[in-house]
Protein backbone atom coordinates (compact mmCIF):
# COMPACT_ATOMS: atom_id res chain seq x y z
CA UNK A 1 0.00 0.00 0.00
CA UNK A 2 1.38 3.37 -0.95
CA UNK A 3 1.46 6.28 1.50
CA UNK A 4 -1.52 8.13 -0.01
CA UNK A 5 -3.64 4.98 0.15
CA UNK A 6 -2.57 4.58 3.78
CA UNK A 7 -3.56 8.17 4.66
CA UNK A 8 -6.95 7.67 3.02
CA UNK A 9 -7.41 4.36 4.79
CA UNK A 10 -6.66 6.03 8.13
CA UNK A 11 -9.16 8.82 7.39
CA UNK A 12 -11.79 6.18 6.62
CA UNK A 13 -10.95 4.27 9.81
CA UNK A 14 -11.13 7.48 11.83
CA UNK A 15 -14.63 8.26 10.56
CA UNK A 16 -15.84 4.66 10.99
CA UNK A 17 -14.56 4.38 14.56
CA UNK A 18 -15.90 7.78 15.59
CA UNK A 19 -19.38 6.92 14.29
CA UNK A 20 -19.34 3.75 16.39
CA UNK A 21 -17.78 5.45 19.41
CA UNK A 22 -20.24 8.33 19.52
CA UNK A 23 -23.21 5.99 19.01
CA UNK A 24 -22.02 3.94 21.97
CA UNK A 25 -21.46 7.06 24.08
CA UNK A 26 -25.01 8.21 23.31
CA UNK A 27 -26.35 5.15 25.15
CA UNK A 28 -24.88 6.31 28.46
CA UNK A 29 -26.56 8.33 31.15
CA UNK A 30 -25.20 11.70 32.23
CA UNK A 31 -23.17 10.29 35.12
CA UNK A 32 -21.41 7.65 33.01
CA UNK A 33 -20.62 10.22 30.33
CA UNK A 34 -19.43 13.14 32.46
CA UNK A 35 -18.06 11.72 35.74
CA UNK A 36 -14.30 11.96 36.15
CA UNK A 37 -12.97 8.40 36.15
CA UNK A 38 -9.28 9.18 36.23
CA UNK A 39 -8.65 9.08 32.49
CA UNK A 40 -6.12 11.53 31.00
CA UNK A 41 -8.98 13.95 30.36
CA UNK A 42 -11.20 12.83 33.22
CA UNK A 43 -14.44 11.58 31.77
CA UNK A 44 -15.53 9.93 28.56
CA UNK A 45 -16.91 13.28 27.42
CA UNK A 46 -13.58 14.95 28.31
CA UNK A 47 -11.73 12.33 26.28
CA UNK A 48 -13.99 12.77 23.24
CA UNK A 49 -13.63 16.54 23.57
CA UNK A 50 -9.83 16.24 23.71
CA UNK A 51 -9.72 14.25 20.48
CA UNK A 52 -11.76 16.97 18.75
CA UNK A 53 -9.51 19.68 20.19
CA UNK A 54 -6.29 17.92 19.18
CA UNK A 55 -7.65 17.20 15.70
CA UNK A 56 -8.56 20.87 15.32
CA UNK A 57 -5.09 21.99 16.44
CA UNK A 58 -3.35 19.65 13.99
CA UNK A 59 -5.69 20.42 11.11
CA UNK A 60 -5.14 24.15 11.61
CA UNK A 61 -1.39 23.49 11.47
CA UNK A 62 -1.83 21.31 8.38
CA UNK A 63 -3.87 24.11 6.77
CA UNK A 64 -0.64 26.10 6.43
CA UNK A 65 0.73 23.44 4.04
CA UNK A 66 0.49 24.89 0.50
CA UNK A 67 -1.38 21.80 -0.77
CA UNK A 68 -3.94 21.98 2.04
CA UNK A 69 -4.98 25.62 1.82
CA UNK A 70 -8.22 24.98 -0.10
CA UNK A 71 -9.25 21.64 1.40
CA UNK A 72 -8.84 22.86 4.97
CA UNK A 73 -10.19 26.38 4.35
CA UNK A 74 -13.32 25.69 6.45
CA UNK A 75 -11.05 25.66 9.52
CA UNK A 76 -9.56 29.06 8.77
CA UNK A 77 -12.13 30.91 10.90
CA UNK A 78 -12.17 28.26 13.63
CA UNK A 79 -10.34 29.63 16.67
CA UNK A 80 -7.20 27.83 17.77
CA UNK A 81 -8.12 25.96 20.96
CA UNK A 82 -6.62 27.52 24.08
CA UNK A 83 -5.54 24.17 25.51
CA UNK A 84 -5.73 20.42 25.04
CA UNK A 85 -8.73 20.21 27.36
CA UNK A 86 -10.49 23.42 26.25
CA UNK A 87 -14.23 22.79 26.07
CA UNK A 88 -15.41 22.67 22.44
CA UNK A 89 -19.11 21.85 22.81
CA UNK A 90 -21.46 21.92 25.80
CA UNK A 91 -22.96 18.44 25.38
CA UNK A 92 -22.67 15.15 23.52
CA UNK A 93 -25.22 15.87 20.76
CA UNK A 94 -23.41 19.11 19.84
CA UNK A 95 -20.00 17.42 20.06
CA UNK A 96 -21.30 14.56 17.89
CA UNK A 97 -22.49 16.99 15.23
CA UNK A 98 -19.14 18.78 15.28
CA UNK A 99 -17.23 15.46 15.16
CA UNK A 100 -19.26 14.33 12.14
CA UNK A 101 -18.41 17.52 10.26
CA UNK A 102 -14.76 17.28 11.25
CA UNK A 103 -14.56 13.65 10.10
CA UNK A 104 -16.13 14.54 6.74
CA UNK A 105 -13.55 17.31 6.36
CA UNK A 106 -10.69 14.93 7.24
CA UNK A 107 -11.98 12.31 4.81
CA UNK A 108 -12.44 14.79 1.96
CA UNK A 109 -9.10 16.48 2.65
CA UNK A 110 -7.25 13.15 2.63
CA UNK A 111 -8.67 12.60 -0.85
CA UNK A 112 -6.95 15.75 -2.11
CA UNK A 113 -3.42 14.89 -0.99
CA UNK A 114 -0.79 13.69 -3.44
CA UNK A 115 2.39 11.71 -2.91
CA UNK A 116 4.52 14.83 -3.42
CA UNK A 117 2.60 16.66 -0.69
CA UNK A 118 3.74 14.13 1.89
CA UNK A 119 7.44 14.97 1.67
CA UNK A 120 7.08 18.64 2.61
CA UNK A 121 8.70 19.88 5.82
CA UNK A 122 5.93 21.56 7.81
CA UNK A 123 6.86 24.32 10.27
CA UNK A 124 4.49 24.88 13.22
CA UNK A 125 4.48 25.92 16.87
CA UNK A 126 3.41 23.65 19.71
CA UNK A 127 0.88 24.76 22.33
CA UNK A 128 3.67 26.46 24.33
CA UNK A 129 4.79 28.40 21.24
CA UNK A 130 7.93 26.35 20.66
CA UNK A 131 8.70 26.17 16.91
CA UNK A 132 9.33 22.87 15.16
CA UNK A 133 9.62 21.64 11.59
CA UNK A 134 8.78 18.03 10.81
CA UNK A 135 8.02 15.81 7.84
CA UNK A 136 4.36 16.19 6.87
CA UNK A 137 3.76 12.46 6.34
CA UNK A 138 5.21 11.67 9.77
CA UNK A 139 2.93 14.33 11.29
CA UNK A 140 -0.07 12.77 9.53
CA UNK A 141 0.82 9.41 11.06
CA UNK A 142 1.06 11.07 14.47
CA UNK A 143 -2.35 12.71 13.89
CA UNK A 144 -4.06 9.39 13.17
CA UNK A 145 -2.14 7.53 15.88
CA UNK A 146 -3.16 10.13 18.46
CA UNK A 147 -6.82 9.60 17.59
CA UNK A 148 -6.44 5.84 17.95
CA UNK A 149 -4.63 6.21 21.26
CA UNK A 150 -7.40 8.24 22.87
CA UNK A 151 -10.21 6.22 21.29
CA UNK A 152 -8.63 3.25 23.06
CA UNK A 153 -9.05 5.12 26.34
CA UNK A 154 -12.64 5.97 25.39
CA UNK A 155 -13.47 2.34 24.66
CA UNK A 156 -12.05 1.39 28.08
CA UNK A 157 -14.31 3.99 29.72
CA UNK A 158 -17.26 2.61 27.75
CA UNK A 159 -16.38 -0.92 28.83
CA UNK A 160 -16.26 0.21 32.47
CA UNK A 161 -19.82 1.49 31.94
CA UNK A 162 -20.97 -1.86 30.56
CA UNK A 163 -20.89 -0.92 26.86
CA UNK A 164 -19.05 -3.37 24.60
CA UNK A 165 -17.68 -1.71 21.46
CA UNK A 166 -16.79 -5.03 19.91
CA UNK A 167 -13.76 -5.25 17.66
CA UNK A 168 -12.15 -1.90 16.90
CA UNK A 169 -9.07 -2.94 14.97
CA UNK A 170 -8.04 -1.31 11.72
CA UNK A 171 -7.64 -4.89 10.53
CA UNK A 172 -11.40 -5.02 10.03
CA UNK A 173 -11.09 -2.52 7.17
CA UNK A 174 -8.10 -4.13 5.45
CA UNK A 175 -9.26 -6.36 2.60
CA UNK A 176 -8.38 -10.04 2.84
CA UNK A 177 -6.44 -10.75 -0.33
CA UNK A 178 -7.59 -14.38 -0.33
CA UNK A 179 -11.24 -13.31 -0.76
CA UNK A 180 -12.48 -13.37 -4.35
CA UNK A 181 -12.84 -9.88 -5.85
CA UNK A 182 -16.28 -8.34 -5.74
CA UNK A 183 -17.71 -7.64 -9.18
CA UNK A 184 -18.70 -4.03 -9.70
CA UNK A 185 -21.38 -3.04 -12.20
UniProtKB/TrEMBL annotation:
InterPro entries named in the record: DinB, DinB/YfiT-like
Can the keyword Metal-binding be found in this entry's annotation?
yes
Pfam families recorded: DinB
Task: Name the UniProt key words of this record, in alphabetical order.
Answer: Metal-binding
| Amino acids binding a divalent metal cation | 50, 146, 150
Kindly list the GO molecular function terms attached to this UniProt entry.
metal ion binding
Q: Its family?
A: Belongs to the DinB family.
What's the protein name? DinB family protein
Amino acid sequence: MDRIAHVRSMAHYNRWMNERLYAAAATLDHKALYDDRGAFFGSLFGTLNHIVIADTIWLKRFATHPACLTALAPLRDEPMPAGLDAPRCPDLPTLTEHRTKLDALIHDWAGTLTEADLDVALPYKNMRGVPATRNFFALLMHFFNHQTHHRGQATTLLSQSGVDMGATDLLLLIPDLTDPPVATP
